[in-house]
Write a structure and sequence with these properties.
Blueprint: H1 3-31, E1 34-37, H2 41-64, H3 76-100, E2 109-111, H4 128-143, H5 147-176, H6 178-186
Antiparallel strand pairs: 1-2
Helix pairs in contact: 1-3, 1-4, 2-5, 3-4, 4-5, 5-6
Amino acid sequence: MSAALVGKICWVLLVAGWYAIRYPFERRARRGRVRKTARGRAETIRMLISLSGLGIVPGIFVATGFPRFATYAPSPVQTALGVAAMVAALVLFRLTHKALGKMWSVSLDIREKHQLVTSGIYRRVRHPMYTAFWTMALAQALLVPNLVAGLAGLAGFGTLYFLRVGPEEAMMEETFGQAYRDYRARTARLLPGIY
């Protein structure tokens, strides 16, 4: 089996794993009451851009080979690094969902009786779910042997991240006040001790 085929199969497993982790939380979130939300046209556009980069564009490539001009033959080392990033992304993704529990939402929502989560993986990092998505985008870049489809995840999720993290932190500060400011002062945004 070629490294390219292994990479494509692993990308499909990455998406399936992501969905399997998220689905029960998404079902539960639909039943919860939202006190405040920042959903709207801008958030919908950001989510669609991210979905396009992490799902639609690579999915089309994996299913059809389009766009062929950007396809290349990956090395086994590249594919192995992609598998390692895939596993790391899914582990991080599961840890973030587990820590958030009922506080999780797909968008920028504050739930009734919302609590600031500062335990588990959130003890040292404010946005470990974003870290998981960055790792997922990196895994995609390594696993999907196409310059357009592989890098689409970094571009798509990067757009969502850079346009969303500021408003999200502002919403958390508005909701939790000094408790959030203290939490922000002692934690990193994505990587402990780095950023």
